[in-house]
Design a protein that fits this description.
With 234 residues, the chain is mostly helical. The protein contains eleven helices and three strands. A three-stranded parallel beta sheet has the order 1-2-3.
Length: 234
Amino acid sequence: MDRMPVSFCERFLVRKNAKMEPISAATLQKYIDLLYTYVRDDIALKLSEKFGVVIRDGRHFIVMAVFDDPTVSKPKERNPNYDESIQCLTRCFVLLAFSDTLSTFNRPWESIIFMIGDNCSVNQAIGRKLGALPFIGCASHRFQLAVNDVLANEDTLLAKIHALMKHLSTIKCRAALRKVTPLASAVRNATRWLIVFSMVERYTKLHPALQSMDHATISKHSFARFVLSESEAA
């Protein structure tokens, strides 16, 4: 997301390449505000008096900054009353987001009757500190932990498939793969729960394409040492 100013619509290149009729920044801002008001009022109308909240973190933002703070270099000078478990900035930001959203839809904090989320420290802190707000662990998270236990015996096989997929993701191997199939490799990622299934499924689809490669290509890119044997594939 470029987060460009509303005035971008008045730029020459934007108007030249856009299919819509030319529009001024003032008019665009007017209709953005009207759309926001309409959506806000519609949600407030449909939102029940009591509801639950699901917290699911899908993005990570990193801010790098330098501060001239002597308490950082000299921990002994820190405020003795400061308690990191209570004054968690992440938790504070989540609470501010909750409060702002609730006020937008004219709902008090008491409207939230439960919260669902991963069993991380921030979510636990919210569940403990805020008026005994019931915290329900994420069922999907618990299911994934159970799946990990089941797949523990197949970790060697999954690691071999992951090694092949990682090898296929290199520039030269990708180019060779594109000659026999439009499919790309899928690498295992610990933060994506479905990726293990997707990786194995992708391997089954790529296997015929790998077998169709000529011996020179397989030898050149060392595919043979990564492909599963017949017993492993079975």
